[in-house]
């Protein structure tokens, strides 16, 4: 029999847990702005049988949980986040009455064309430690994983997914992904002469320029100390949010 744990027990790693240190808002809406911690919930209905499974039989969704059949099986669900998002922790809502652990991996696969083995790496992991029914287990992703759809520097596309092994008499209700967006690192060569590398606002100005929100004030400058007009504010906000409104 597996060692038992509290149903709300967390799987912690050495050092301060992000799950202890930061409040996480109770939302599952995917946002593409702000650098506070956010959550994305991948529900049970998103999981489908994997070719790595020992057996594909599973019962229908029961009270929000995908319940496995008579033997162990694996299931996968796709994961999509904004580019540059840092994944800090995972939480899985599980039903585990088995002596085996329920294991959940956050994985990335390199989609290499031409018949080559794409290769898959696990970048996050958690596992149940009880056999008494329903519960939730959380684990930090250490170091935080930065979500990107282009691998390394070779331009190979990356696909991300959640991979869950459900033993007999186990189920999964969903996985909560805790992440935060980050401002992109600035280029080595500055875009504007008056906001050089090392300037306090260099990373933020470069992010605006790189995303097409601003082209500066002319003559290769950004004019960081000039006041902002209401017209310029409207242009910044509209471009930054990609506002497209029906009239």
Describe the structure.
The structure is a single chain. This protein has helices spanning 18-21, 202-210, 230-241; strands at 38-43, 48-49, 58-62, 65-68, 73-78, 86-96, 103-111, 120-127, 133-146, 150-151, 156-166, 170-180. It is mainly β and 247 residues long. The protein has two domains: 18-180, Sandwich (Jelly Rolls), CATH 2.60.120; 184-247, no CATH class. The longest helix has 12 residues, at 230-241. The model is unreliable at 3-15 (pLDDT under 50).
Please give a quick description of this structure.
The protein has 247 residues and is mainly β. The protein contains three helices and twelve strands, in the order αββββββββββββαα.
Describe the SSE topology.
Elements (H helix, E strand, L loop, with lengths): L17 H4 L16 E6 L4 E2 L8 E5 L2 E4 L4 E6 L7 E11 L6 E9 L8 E8 L5 E14 L3 E2 L4 E11 L3 E11 L21 H9 L19 H12 L6
Antiparallel strand pairs: 1-12, 2-5, 3-4, 4-12, 5-11, 6-9, 6-12, 7-8, 7-11, 10-11
Q: Could you say what the CATH topology of the largest domain is called?
A: Jelly Rolls
Q: Which structural class best describes the helix and strand composition?
A: mainly beta
Choose one word for the global shape: elongated
The termini sit apart by 63 Å
Question: What is the level 1 CATH name of the largest domain?
Answer: Mainly Beta
C-alpha-based Rg, rounded: 22 Å
Q: Element order, helices and strands?
A: HEEEEEEEEEEEEHH
Q: Roughly what fraction of the amino acids lie in strands?
A: 35-45%
* Low-pLDDT regions: 3-15
Q: Please bin the fraction of helical residues.
A: 10-25%
Report the strand count: 12
- Main sheet summary: 6 strands, antiparallel
**Average pLDDT level:** 83
Number of helices: 3
What's the architecture of the largest domain, going by CATH?
Answer: Sandwich
